[in-house]
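Duplicate of #3305? Posting structure anyway:
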């Protein structure tokens, strides 16, 4: 391997952080190399966001068909061909990946296929489909994360699955045990429960969706239970055995259960294997994260890290924004990350979307916090579309009216949260929302009404009775 190439900025990893960083750097006139050992698009496109949401879209269609009689529409017998749902998922992913490659190349970014390993802080050795040395003035690490495997019951990808291998199923299981009640586990619970699978969630913590706060956790526990999902909290899984025809699960308290399949969704771990970070002078934390400052700079001058490897927020859109910040700084334009208004969505049925602080977090932070909650059942649009489940909630500071956080559960929550992210990012107040005309009838009116509720001046909800 004697060939050596030189570029201004090299990006390791072509996920939603890496390819965005590469494009941003190229837009700023830099020569850019993008290194990827797997598929362009990373986890999000290939085994995460896009494939799961494609399958969930199919489940949503089924859900609407089931309730068609509520709209005066009668349908005949309905059959789900899961292998076709899976094939559509693959087709969608493939189409986007092809378009992504064209987008990257249109920005005159050179793609190298292979593993990247540091030889020094500014020299990479690439091995794989392409074999060469690459020297770069600046290097951005965007290698992402992989599903966390548990030594006591490692995934065999036959009956003990993780969030990647479960996407390859072509048949609907009759029963599914999900180890972990975080957002990944709950999305798959929602998917397969809709398809008729008997779903059981096993969560070690006192509640599911703990990271989303008690309001969300309590609401979704009630919703899942009403749909037949069995939830066990405060339980630890001791072992999972593949019995060929099913899995046998043993809990720490000695209780056992059987299921067709088990999904292990207990989190993700950062991926830096094979990078030889020590040759670049980089260290990682005890949890394997690469520490960065607000400019996404590491402790080594000229080296940046973005996405899951930073341990900030394991979300594709955060990685993309970090990519813009890192590339800007690498190109000599000052830019900083802010994490006060990071929206997060759980694509269950109904959808969950959050941004900023929960009421509990705001109170703990010292704010005189209050919450204004407006139920969607009081919205005309929700009644018209037969989607009355859920609510819009705004958390604000009583003293200043500043919006500190927001939660939406229900129809279109994933789209609705953008308004509150914009409000928090720009430090807007309840008054800002109340004075903004919202189109009628829309689900977005929920924010207007929630702001009025927080201000204790409700328009479309009875006032509190003062005693």
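Output from current build:
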């Amino acid at each position: 391997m004697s060939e050596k190439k030189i570029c201004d900025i090299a990006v390791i990893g072509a996920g939603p952080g890496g390819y965005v960083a590469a494009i941003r750097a190229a837009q700023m006139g830099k020569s850019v190399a993008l290194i990827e050992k797997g598929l362009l698009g990373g986890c999000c496109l290939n085994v995460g966001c896009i494939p799961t949401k494609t399958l969930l879209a199919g489940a949503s269609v089924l859900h609407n068909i089931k309730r068609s009689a509520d709209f005066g529409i009668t349908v005949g017998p309905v059959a789900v061909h899961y292998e076709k749902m899976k094939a559509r998922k693959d087709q969608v992913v493939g189409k986007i990946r092809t378009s992504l490659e064209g987008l990257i190349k249109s920005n005159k970014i050179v793609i190298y296929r292979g593993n990247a390993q540091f030889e020094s802080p500014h020299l990479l050795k690439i091995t794989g489909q392409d074999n060469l040395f690459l020297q770069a003035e600046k290097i951005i690490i965007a290698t992402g994360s992989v599903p966390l495997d548990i030594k006591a019951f490692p995934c065999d990808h036959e009956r003990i699955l993780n969030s990647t291998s479960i996407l390859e199923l072509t048949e609907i299981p009759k029963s599914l045990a999900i180890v972990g009640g975080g957002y990944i586990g709950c999305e798959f619970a929602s998917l397969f429960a809709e398809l008729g699978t008997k779903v059981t969630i096993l969560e070690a913590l006192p509640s599911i969706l703990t990271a989303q706060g008690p309001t969300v956790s309590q609401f979704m526990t009630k919703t899942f239970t009403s749909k037949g999902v069995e939830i066990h909290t405060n339980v630890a899984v001791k072992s999972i055995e593949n019995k060929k025809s099913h899995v046998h699960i043993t809990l720490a308290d000695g209780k056992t259960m059987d299921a067709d399949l088990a999904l292990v969704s207990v989190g993700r771990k950062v991926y830096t294997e094979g990078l030889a970070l020590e040759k670049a002078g980089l260290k990682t934390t005890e949890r394997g994260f690469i520490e960065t400052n607000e400019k996404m700079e590491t402790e080594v001058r000229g080296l940046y890290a973005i996405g899951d490897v930073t341990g900030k927020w394991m979300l594709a859109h955060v990685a993309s924004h970090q990519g813009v910040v890192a590339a800007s700084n690498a190109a000599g334009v000052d830019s900083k990350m802010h994490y006060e208004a990071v929206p997060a969505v759980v694509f269950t049925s109904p959808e969950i979307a959050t941004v900023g602080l929960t009421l509990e977090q705001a109170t703990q932070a010292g704010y005189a916090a209050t919450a204004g909650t407006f139920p969607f059942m009081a919205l005309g649009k929700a009644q018209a579309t037969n989607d009355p489940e859920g609510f819009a909630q705004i958390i604000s500071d009583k003293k200043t009216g500043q919006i500190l956080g927001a939660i939406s559960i229900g129809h279109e929550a994933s789209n609705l949260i953008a308004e509150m992210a914009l409000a928090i990012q720009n430090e807007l107040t309840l008054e800002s929302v109340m004075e903004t005309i919202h189109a009628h009838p829309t689900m977005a009116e929920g924010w207007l009404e929630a702001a009025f509720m927080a201000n204790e001046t409700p328009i479309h909800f009875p006032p509190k009775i003062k005693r």
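Confirmed duplicate; merging threads. The two ends are 82 Å apart (CA to CA). The chain has three domains: 4-147+270-330, 160-266, 344-454.
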